[in-house]
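Observation: inputs received (chain + S-adenosyl-L-homocysteine).
Thought: call the complex predictor directly.
Action: predict_structure
Action Input:
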Amino acid sequence: MANSIKIQVKPNYVKLFKTGYPLIDKEAIKNSDVLKQEGTIIDLFDDKNQFLAKGYYGKQNKGRGWVLSHNQKEVIDQAFFTKKLKAAVEARQSFYKDNDTTAFRVFNGEGDGIGGLTIDCYEEGYYVLTWYSEGIYSFKEEIIKSLSNIVDYKGIYEKKRFDVKGTYIEDDDFVIGERADFPLIVKENGIKFAVYLNDGAMVGVFLDQKDVRKAIRDKYAKGKNVLNTFSYTGAFSVAAALGGATKTTSVDLANRSKAKTIEQFSVNQLDYEAQDIIVEDVFNYFKYAVRKQLSFDMVILDPPSFARSKKHTFSAGKDYPELLKQAIQLTERQGIIVASSNCSTFGMPKFKGFIEKAFQETGETYKILEEFSLPKDFKTIKEFKEGNYLKVVIIKKL
Ligand code: SAH
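Observation:
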């Protein structure tokens, strides 16, 4: 592997790296002109030439790489990757042993010691690696070798999300082993999901919501008329229907969401014809629902952090209170709102501020019943709070 190069950290960032912060921000680097090839190993030093940390150079949003070690002598080689992957796999043994959950995250980026890389496992032996920069991708050979030595795999797939915005790069996605027959039917706390590992950036289910789906099914859905907005493949609707919801309505503007949602109901032996699956802009649907005086016992909000449709631009950091206000209007008294955001630019306190604001402005009152962040397999570290991006609040409208 190539020699490391020396990076000088700006004085106001030194303390951050000393406290274990793993992300190497563009602004933290003094001599960025020396950074040429992604994947180069970099040693970070303070202005007194004291070693701070070792990492790799890779462009990911405003990041220019991730810290891999605080030991100056550590060599970033096959053995290093094997050590990290092994620890991560060992920490997920309860998931490997759980017959009711066959899809979970095995390696969660900086939470497991290597920022820019995630690995998910689907249905006993199919793995998906997601590379978030050219830099981390340059270690592909070592990482795949390590993974294939540690786990019993059937097939390995990959997703490349290299450009600065993390956009998915269209590719075959298959790496080694045998190709799976899609859909693979995975289980999550007994709920079945059809997944496709070779069909674009998203596979059909977001694994980070498993605790929320379980709670909806086990504690909140019984007897409820449920509206699931930004529903994608309808995973929350399926959880609600399995939990005894009287009816679910799923709304998403993507054309393919309808067939995908029908498929998820069907693999769970649920009659999709008893459900409403609507392809429409959520904001238009809200207007329609108000006009028709519809109301629901449970409204689920899980918008993307940022979305632009023909008529609307939605940015979670700005527009979430408005979204909540519309949901409050459609929710029955004593009904439930499940408010979720995966936007990493704000944390739980600000999100709760949005909830407070929305209820205040509608003149309604509420009670928070439960809160969720990332599940156990999405390991995070306290030194990097932004890594725990998921915020879900279960609210009762009084
Ligand atoms: N709640 C889903 C995940 C949501 S992903 C789940 O549990 O799996 C975000 C979804 O929002 C995408 O499917 C996208 O098509 C949809 N979307 C984005 N903007 C929208 C809008 N204005 N109206 C309806 N759907 C929208």
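Thought: report the result.
Final Answer: Residues 313 and 319 are 9 Å apart (CA to CA). The first helix runs from residue 11 to 18.
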